[in-house]
Amino acid sequence: MKSIKELSSELDFTIFTDIVGNAYPGFNIETEEQKKRFLENSMKVQKENPFVTFYGVFEEDKMLGGMRFHDFKMNLLSTKINVGGIGLIAVDLLYKKEKVAKTIVTNFIEHYKNLGVSMVMLYPFRPDFYKKMGFGFGTSMNQYRVKPSYLPKGNSKSNIRYATKDDSSKLVDCYNRIYEKTNGLIEKHEREFAALFNNPKSKVVAYYKDNEIKGYMIYEFKLSEKTFINDIVVNQLLFENTESLMELMTFLNSQSDQIRYIIFNIQDEDFRFLLENPANDSDNIFTPVYHECSIQGTGLMYRVINTKGIINELAGHNFNNENCKLKITVNDNFIMGNNGSIIVEFIKGFASISTDEEYDVEISLDIADFSSLITCSVTFNSLYKYGRASISDENYLKRVNNIFASAEKPICLTIF
């Protein structure tokens, strides 16, 4: 019988290091030096970061796999809620197809459910595997390849300079001010920004004003083997106002003598409106005259593990001033206690669980799609249009869609 226990000894972490190295060859945990570095870093994180814990899956004394749990605080629709994250899911190659991964995810869900958490999330190695377990898609990532000259050129970049480790507190202050008003962002701590400067590849430029950072960009160079002309990959771009954005863009615009493309990984679908020419370098034109401007990928997935709990946590959120008694029927084959119906009463936009059996309209959908809906990753109209949700009375379609509508999809800049 499989059991889960927290990793504590150096032996535990040594075995886990070997499992991770074999499960993820791309991590380059092969040489003794690489293994030692990964082992020491994992043990250090376990010891020093109170929000991260490593676990192993054991059968008797044999470790079959392992994972890492993350305790997060997320801004969901302007409400700060606790969420659980799981990363570094690794299964010993000798025990593949023996339901080790399912054991890991089941324990992950139970762990956070027992803590009173209503939502968990993960980055999927296979989206279909996790969708079957009730995880719904989050906001897509768009990758743009833009010539520097196609970015706005402002009047100045005089407030832009490189950030250093000494600026970590100012960077986290800037991030957390944006976190306070951005759906989906996860609260960060100074240690996370300080760790950025341990990676020699990562560069941080920031906009400084009144002794504060009002915007910043984290990037790295993508080197070309054939020429001195290279690319810049922007992995994170945050700004509090247009002025800081324009100076950051002016900084990038001025790199055209040695930089071929600026590659943006960004979750904002409207980013192309900033650009003089959003078309990328593929020269691909399709059906009939549409220029390819970005590639899109699906990543972070959300999962509601307590439907009543998430509604209660959002009691202070205004669901667009709607009045409605809504029956929500959720199909959840993975968490039996979450499978079934609840009636939610919305009065002037504020929601509460109703004990009455009467309701105005019923919607039915899978827990994966409800998880995407409640985070505003997708609209109810889209779920209905594509047959992922049903409604008992189409006359309420506009109202139900408005209940779950938001001006912004969730953004997540935390990798775990």
TrEMBL record:
Domain of life according to the entry: Bacteria
Q: Which residues form the N-acetyltransferase domain?
A: 2-152
Q: What is its EC number?
A: 2.3.1.-
Q: A single Gene Ontology molecular function, please?
A: acyltransferase activity
InterPro entries listed in its UniProt record: Acetyltransf_17, Acetyltransferase_Eis, Eis_dom, GNAT_dom
Assigned keywords, A-Z: Acyltransferase, Transferase
Pfam families per the record? Acetyltransf_17 (PF17668), Acetyltransf_9 (PF13527), SCP2_2 (PF13530)
Its recorded name reads GNAT family N-acetyltransferase
Which species is this UniProt entry from? Tissierella simiarum
